[in-house]
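Quick illustration, no need to memorize.
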Amino acid sequence: FISEEIGYPKPDKRFFDACFDRIEGFKKEEAIIVGDSLSSDIMGGINAGIKTVWLSRKGEKSDLPDVTVASPFEIISLF
């Protein structure tokens, strides 16, 4: 989904609500957002009420995301 096409930028909850409305059978409790930006991806997921996975390639720490990984390959082990 592209925020310019949706009409709202991340982390605006309306962006995520518009995305969710376009996914048939979408359930927040079964969704996660994976992103590398705390300010847009992770805050957006928090604002939208879904789980968050932060890709922190530089090893930064934050209490905001539900999970922090250093590599995309680590995401696979979460499932």
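The mean pLDDT is 94.
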